[in-house]
Q: What sequence folds into this?
């Protein structure tokens, strides 16, 4: 299924909006609750799935929706359509926390992209939003993103969101070691694993956690400077009576405490 060809504009700096322009009949899919505003003639409908499983029957739709539940997302996605005949109409979607919205042309990215489990914001209809299990037990257990990643597949535009500043790196047979919470998305061609973070003293007292994520091979990786878990930790520390600080991805307690849920 070919994706609809959509035009877009990203508005703002720290808490951004992506405004998408739809021709009559064009559709964009989005996470539930992401819509900010829409013009007349834009209609929307909540559906179980992204629309690519239309020919798979009710069981296929239930299976697709069940996979989304595993990533912590809503069972339903919202489909926005320009139902008018008078020309182009716009609908906008906002980022859930401070950071950047990243436009990704999946056709130029090899047709697939693996993302952290809450990165997806919206995409042109025809984009398949599913899940990918990490291939190695250790990578899922200690890698910061849990066992499950989001997989975007198609040939159109998709939009993902991440915290802080976004860094894009191209690897050419190289290896990059990364703080586990800072990975936003990467090409499926890259090998994803974990690696011990230095010697015992560095692991215990260095503040970088027990493990680092490693990406090696040829492909693209996108990083974020401010993972949401780190931002939440800072906020919790300022709340009176908020209890002990929840340790983030750069600590032993954070690694052991969050290894199962992927936070």
A:
């Amino acid at each position: 299924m070919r994706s609809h060809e959509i035009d877009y504009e990203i508005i703002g700096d720290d808490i951004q909006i992506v405004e998408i322009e739809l021709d009559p009949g064009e559709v964009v899919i989005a996470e539930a609750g992401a819509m900010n505003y829409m013009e007349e003639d834009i209609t929307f409908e909540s559906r179980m799935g992204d629309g690519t499983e239309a020919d798979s029957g009710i069981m296929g739709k239930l299976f697709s929706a069940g996979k989304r539940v595993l990533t912590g997302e809503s069972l339903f996605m919202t489909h926005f359509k320009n139902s008018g005949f008078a020309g182009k109409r716009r609908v906008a979607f906002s980022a859930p926390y401070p950071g950047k919205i990243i436009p990704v042309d999946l056709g130029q990215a090899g047709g697939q992209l693996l993302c952290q489990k809450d990165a997806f914001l919206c995409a042109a209809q025809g984009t398949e939003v599913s899940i990918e299990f990490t291939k190695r037990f250790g990578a899922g257990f200690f890698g910061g993103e849990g066992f499950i990643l989001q997989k975007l597949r198609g040939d159109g535009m998709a939009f993902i969101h991440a915290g802080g500043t976004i860094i894009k790196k191209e690897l050419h047979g190289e290896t990059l070691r990364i703080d586990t919470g800072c990975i936003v998305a990467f090409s499926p061609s890259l090998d994803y694993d974990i690696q011990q973070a230095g010697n015992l003293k560095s692991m215990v007292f260095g503040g970088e956690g027990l493990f680092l994520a490693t990406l090696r091979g040829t492909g693209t990786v996108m990083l974020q400077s401010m993972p949401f878990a780190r931002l939440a930790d800072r906020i919790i520390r300022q709340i009176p009576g908020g209890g002990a600080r929840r340790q983030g991805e750069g600590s032993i307690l954070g690694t052991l405490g969050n290894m199962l849920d992927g936070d």
